[in-house]
Design a protein that fits this description.
Length: 117
């Protein structure tokens, strides 16, 4: 289940984001979290099953398009289709929007799209 990020999830969110290659540096990680907390068009969602095991972060590019900047699943829960479920749930939540990846998330996003077909 996709849930919206709240400040009390900060440590969990930072932990999950730190698995992304672009977020290894602590300062970069803190900047990313701050961006999701302070910029209106940036949103962070967590994936919760029994525990929070995934994260997906987007920004609204315009009225019709959102871009996925971050997507990550806890390594112990990978290869179970969680990322694909997050992308699908995001599509259901933002039904009137086109969802596109960034350069960093493109490979994973395309993999999810192929499994959909």
């Amino acid at each position: 289940m996709l849930i919206r990020y709240k400040k009390n999830f900060e440590k969990i969110a930072m932990g999950l984001l730190s698995f992304m290659p672009t977020e290894k540096d602590l300062k970069k990680l803190q900047q990313s979290i701050k961006q999701y907390e302070s910029e209106e068009n940036w949103q962070l969602f967590l994936w919760k099953e029994d525990d929070i095991i995934g994260i997906i972060g987007i920004s609204a590019q315009d009225d019709n398009k959102v871009e996925i900047h971050h997507i990550c699943v806890n390594p112990s829960h990978r290869q179970q289709g969680i990322g694909k479920k997050m992308v699908k749930a995001l599509g259901e939540l933002l039904v009137d929007k086109e969802i596109v990846p960034t350069e960093q998330t493109a490979a994973f996003f395309e993999k999810c799209e192929k499994k959909e077909e």
